[in-house]
Structure formats: C-alpha cells, structure tokens
Amino acid sequence: MKITDMHVTPIAITDPPLLNAAGLHAPYALRAVVEVVTDNGLYGLGEVPGSVATTSALEAAREVVIGKDPFQLNAIQQGLFDHFGQEGATARGDQPWDKRRIVHVNSAIEVALFDLMGKATGRPVCDLLGGRVRERVDFSAYLFYKYEGAGGELGFGVDPNAAGWAAARQQAALDPEGVVKEAQAMCKEFGFKSIKLKGGVFPPDEEVAAIHALHEAFGAGAPLRLDPNAIWTVETSIEAGRKLEGVLEYYEDPTRGQENMAQVARALSIPLATNMCTTSFDHIPGSVQLGSEAIILSDHHFWGGLRASIELARICQVFGRGLSMHSNSHVGISLAAMAHLAAATPNLTYACDTHYPWQSEEVIVGGRLKFEEGALEVTNEPGLGIELDRAALAKLHEQYKTCGLTERNDEIEMQKVQPGWTFQATRW
Ligand code: GKR
Ligand code: MG
C-alpha cells in the first residue's frame, strides 16, 4: 500500500465569544483537515489547529509523505524532522494555546496514518495503540466566561429561536451566577460530571468566588478545576489557591514556568496540572527535578501525535504524574482521535477536556458525535470510525476563505470590544 496523495483543507468553524487570559475568541476558530489517500482507495483523516503557517507547512510535508507506505510511521516521522528540523520549546509562545508548527504537522499526519492503518486492517485505532482499557471516555464540562452570542457571520450570532444548550450557549456568563447557569445547562445537556472553569479573565477573587459558587451548586463531590492560563504571580496563585484547598480537584497553570509552578506546588495541598509549563519531552527532566506539577494534560496535537502521547503516559506513570487531556476548539476528527487515545491509555484517569459543546458544525458523516452521561463511547469501526462529509468540509472551507482570519489572535478580537486592551503574560 502506498500513499498517493495528501489533501490539506483549512476550515473555519463558528466559535462563541469566549474569554481567556489572552483576550477573546474570534467568531470563527480555524482548523486544518488532512486527508491522506492510498493507491488501494483508502483515506485517513487528521485535524489540527489551523493557521496560514500550518497550512503551508502541511502542504510542504506532502513531498515527505507521498509515495510512502502508511505503516512506516518512524520513517515518515524522521522524514518530517529532516525536512523541517526540530522546533525549540520556546516556539510555543506565552498564549494559552500552543503556536508550534512542526508538532502539529506531525500530529495531523500521524493521526491520518493511524486512521488509514485501521481502515486497512479492519481494526479501530485504539487497537493499534495496544487495545482499549475502557469502552467509554469521560469528558468534563469546559466553562468559559463569555459575552452574549454563539459566533459566526452575524457578529456574535444570537439566534432567538435556539433551544436547550444551543440557547444557553449564546448567553453571557460574566459572574459567578452566569458561570453556574452555564455549568448547569452544559451538564444537563451532556451529562458531564467534572467541571473546569477557564480563568485568567477577571481579578482572581472573582474567579475564586465562581469556583465556590460551583462548589455550592454541584455539591462537595463534584470535581472542579480552575485554569488561569499562567497569568497569575506566584503570590497570587498561592493566595487564591489557599482559598480553594479542599474545593478543587486540580489547579491548572495558575502561574508561568516550571520554577514558579514548583513554588506554588510546595505551598499548597491541591495538585497542580499543566498544559503550559511541561509541554514537550525536553521539559520532563525539569518537571521531575523541580516538581512543577502533579498532573500533565497530554494533547496529541502538540505532543506530536498518538504514539508520543502514549510515551508521555508511560513517563507520567514512571515519575508519579497524573495524566489528563487538554483541548482547543475542534470538530469530530480530533474528538474521535482523543477518544481512541484515551481509551488506550490506562493511566488517563481524569475526565478529558473538550471544547466540542461550544462548536455546532461538523465535517464527519452523521454530524455531531454524542456524549452520553458525560462520556463518548469508543467505536469498534475501523480506523477512527468516522467518514468525511465532503459537502460539509467544502462549506467550512468556503467559510474559511470568506471569514478573513489567517491565525488565532485573541488580543485583536478583544480590542474590538475593549479598545486598547493588551495581553499581559503576567497580569495579577
Ligand atoms: O480556548 O481559550 C481557549 C483556551 O484557553 C485554550 O486555548 C487553552 O489552550 O484549553 C486550553 C487550556 O487548557 O489552557
Ligand atoms: Mg490549560
């Protein structure tokens, strides 16, 4: 079997005006869909965060991939490293999301190859990763402070006819009461049991109050997480953390860098978690030496793929780290890959993050994947168990061409609402 082609399609999906430490989500989130095609008529799918730079890197990767046997993952990965070189961990940037290009290219292609290998062998991707240790993967309710609207062409797109979660999704949530309402609507619709609040938006005391309001509304047993995306100082993180002891399941990236995280970790009894300070294998020695976090949020998009994420899981086990999973705005190809990976990772014991409830569009046949009681059932179908809806893909590609966005920049979006607002790597 040989790879004969690789199609790269940038898409734009509507995204609500969600707030975070770096500003505001644009009305559209960008993703890139990769389709690797073989000479026996099969295709495999991958999805990563999109930008003009990612699209052109993926286009440049075609010459490495085309002509290869899709089972030769090591050779293809080496070919990609030879072609692009390695990227320093600092290329990640200070924003909540990861700006590295090469890890994303590797990930998109590797996931597409796993999908292909699964289709070629008639086995689900989780079987190719060693087999499932769970049938259903738990996800958490991912709460955001937000302005009114659900994203898209009409500015922030308010639909007066929306019902259920679609209606709740477009409501503003700017204080503890709004956050609790959002959580109740999301948990009612999807059945999530764990709850994460994206912080770093309002002064720390307001966010602490929102967590206490959730604790009161959902009861002492509800696992709660707060993620200020590293914009608090060590002192602020400790002060806020003390008010959250006994309330949070974990405290995600309150402050920036492994040294600072280690100081906070030493001062508190709550476990710290990260998708910002330990984000590559180069960071593992520092993490172990300093004790910067107790839990690592894996993400196959920026750890370089599914195999790399399994390797990370083993490292976490060896060094006594817990393992959870990070997310960004995405559609079903990423969600299916996350579910197969989680199903095949024994020590992934926390409910995974997902932005999926905030999105409404899809590129897969059959439309949106469904959570039941907060979990996704892992399919037994070959590969990722999904097929590409080509008409939907074309529509979302058209939306990409007309939306005018070329990369994620939450600061620019925030300035449209609050002129002069600037991102600060450390704010409080
Ligand atoms: O979507 O605004 C967002 C999040 O802040 C995202 O970009 C982060 O990468 O979900 C993320 C996180 O856990 O830090
Ligand atoms: Mg995070």
Total number of domains: 2
The CATH architecture of the largest domain comes to Alpha-Beta Barrel
Beta-strand content estimate: 15-25%
Q: According to CATH, what is the topology of the largest domain?
A: TIM Barrel
Key terms for this structure?
binds D-glucarate; 14 strands; 14 helices; alpha/beta; 2 domains; single chain; 428 residues; Enolase-like, domain 1; binds magnesium ion; TIM Barrel; seven-stranded parallel sheet
Can you walk through the features of this model?
There is one protein chain. With about 425 residues, the protein is α/β, with parallel strands linked by helices. The chain has two domains: about 5-120 and about 390-400, Enolase-like, domain 1 (2-Layer Sandwich), CATH 3.30.390; about 130-375, Enolase-like C-terminal domain (TIM Barrel). Helices cover about 35% and strands about 15% of the residues. It is built from 14 helices and 14 strands. It has helices spanning about 50-65, 75-85, 100-120, 125-130, 165-170, 175-190, 205-220, 235-240, 260-265, 285-290, 305-320, 330-345, 390-405, 410-415; strands at about 5-15, 20, 25, 30-40, 45-50, 135-140, 140-145, 195-200, 225, 250, 270-275, 295-300, 320-325, 375. The chain has a seven-stranded parallel sheet with strand order 7-8-9-10-11-12-13, with helices on one face. Helix 2 (about 75-85) runs antiparallel to helix 3 (about 100-120), helix 6 (about 175-190) packs across helix 7 and helix 8 (about 235-240) packs parallel to helix 9. The longest helix is centred in the N-terminal third of the chain and has 20 residues, at about 100-120. The radius of gyration is 20 Å and the shape is globular. The mean pLDDT is about 95. D-glucarate binds near residues 96, 198, 227, 275 and 355.
